[in-house]
Fold:
Amino acid sequence: MWQAFYRTMIAHGRWMLIPQGVATTLLIAVCAVIIGAILGCIFALFKISKSRLLQAISGVYTTVIRGVPMTTQLMIFYFVIFVPFGMRNAVVVAIIAFGINSGAYCTEIFRAGIQSVDSGQMEAGRSLGLSWRQTFIKIILPQAFRIIVPTFTSEFITLIKETSVASFIAVVDLQKACDNIRNATYNAWIPLLSCAAIYLCMTVGLTKLFSIFEKRMAKSDRS
Structure:
């Protein structure tokens, strides 16, 4: 087994593809979740606004993005939207595509978090002389944030796993790096099991890390 592992992963420095792939995967996931959070905030506010036009725009965005498979969206962004205009940087396209996709899910996460705060909190803030904006920022958002964090962190972990389809547009992420090793060595089980193990370590590690963060945040709230 060791000899097979050495020939597949160590020989010719093929293992170096793995950390490069992990770095690309994390880059796409981190940038995409930041874009997703920004879009999620904007469209969540659209969705809870009193303007029917803004509600409709947010509704169309979340319905379309959540209703189309991520792989299809990625290929549309790359081959239909960006490549015809000369944009061939697959990593940038992947970041934009995953960011827009994440934004649709973040919209619902943020909307649910904001609307879960008791409506009496807004009334209490207004009765104290605060404007709607001041009440929303100082009273509603801090409470919504505590509700949103667990689901938002889960979205980030899910996004890391979803980036594996970025290889469809030739992004050399973790999945593509392992596929390249498999194609070069004609050995499927070692690269693919290694890929699965690394994804598992990343997701389990981040789950533990976020769990610690949530516990500390809950402890600070009680104190």
